[in-house]
Amino acid sequence: GYISAARNPKEDADDCYPGLGDYITRVCSSSGTTLTRFSECSYTCEKKEPCLSCSWTKRNLPDGLPCGRCRECCGGICTRIQFNLQNPLTLKSCAK
């Protein structure tokens, strides 16, 4: 889900980690697009010019990034962490 609809996506990214909004904004602008959306596990860059077939790109944040209580980003989706219920307790993370 989206962190906040009322704020701008760069501010939402900076709330996640200071400087992340600037980094993502640079990534988008390097491909001639603008940061339009930031969610828990992904962000979207769009071309902001009048066009017949406007283009957008959704990019995922790294797998294994915490995104909620007992959850992590996996393929751009905030999913429940899988525990190995053994001694000691360990995780099966989707991060490689």
From TrEMBL:
<keyword id="KW-0964">Secreted</keyword>
<dbReference type="InterPro" id="IPR021971">
    <property type="entry name" value="Salp15"/>
</dbReference>
<keyword id="KW-0732">Signal</keyword>
<keyword id="KW-0325">Glycoprotein</keyword>
<protein>
    <submittedName>
        <fullName>Putative ticsk ixostatin</fullName>
    </submittedName>
</protein>
<dbReference type="Pfam" id="PF12115">
    <property type="entry name" value="Salp15"/>
</dbReference>
<comment type="similarity">
    <text>Belongs to the salp15 family.</text>
</comment>
<dbReference type="GO" id="GO:0005576">
    <property type="term" value="C:extracellular region"/>
</dbReference>
